[in-house]
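S1.2 Input.
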Amino acid sequence: MTVDVLSRPARAERRARAAVAVLFFTNGALFANLLPRYPQIKADLGMGNSAYGLAVAAFPTGAIAAGLAAGVLIRRLGSARVAVAGTLLTGVGILAAGLANSAVLFAGVLFLAGAMDAITDVAQNAHGLRVQRRYGRSIINSFHAIWSIGAVTGGTMAAGAIALGLSLGQHLLISAVVFAIAACVALRFCLPGPETEPPAEPETESPAEPETQSSAGPETDRRAPQPAQRAPTGLRTGYVLAALVLIATAGALVEDAGNSWAALYLSHSLHASAALAASGYIALVGAQFIGRLIGDRLVDRFGQRAVARGGGLIAAAGMALALAVPTVPGTILGFATAGLGVATLVPAAMHEADELPGLKPGSGLTIVSWLMRLGFLLSPPIVGQVADATSLRAGLLVVPFAGLLVLALAGVLQTRRR
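S1.3 Output.
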């Protein structure tokens, strides 16, 4: 009977789920509108690979600088309001980045846009997990799938704007206005009331005790260790949290390879046209969308641990082959396999961190969301330095490395659900 009730969410929950989906969509689309224009911005501002890598690293630097402020803002204003306000300010920052007339100004406004994006990211995930607790089953991967749809939409919009000859200012202004309106409309359908609510989740197997079931009822705090479960020590909790951060960071490294370097690698190293070069990023986020669309069902059937290991292997093998035999179609396919492989990593790490016993509500989610952005911060300058010293092809070996890292650390993730 309980399962029946949970499988039929009320109208308010369904509308809230749609509203959160819109927020994830706009968040993915806004930044994706800028990424395929990076080669043009790099050329217009006369930046080398190292300078370019440092400049685009300003976005994750801003995210790290502001990420921990998200929790305070959410507690004061509510996750939905914070997510929408962050979306509006991110759009303004991305527009300003497209209009920057110097590398320093470009990096400065990317820093501010990254700060707003980090706050938006934590807030929308917090609201999404709140809706998930109302549903009583996993839906977080579906939100990240919608983010991928937004990213594909944004990348496609940028490719279309390039083909039509729209200026950076015209293109990014249209993007900012359209997605600002969408976010404001979504706000009125988000969940009202306080952020913390009693959860209603199905029983799962513990990674450490797969044969043990919890007898706790739906009103029990999901973060409190139950008598039938072994409460992790502080040392083990710290290890698990660190591993989750590295898993999320591996996903971030792969995403950044598509964000910052796919268009450049295809256009400069493989001599693809500007419009075709945008296909590398689009392929990565498109395959990532497919992986997230089926992710909840795969996790329920095989467990997050097995899904992550399989994904890490796919990402490592697919991109390694594309780099070993460099062609335009093969490279686009390589970015697609990388996106498919890491599709569930960030949602998995966020969910597992949010469920860790012994931490205050929201602490695990905030820490993982904040620290995983080190991947976005460190990847561009490292890849840029390697590209200047050897080649961009060598710099992109960061993608297979990320897949191998996931294979090594996936043991901290959940096994199959009952």
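S1.4 Remarks. Confidence is low (pLDDT under 50) at residues 1-6, 199-232.
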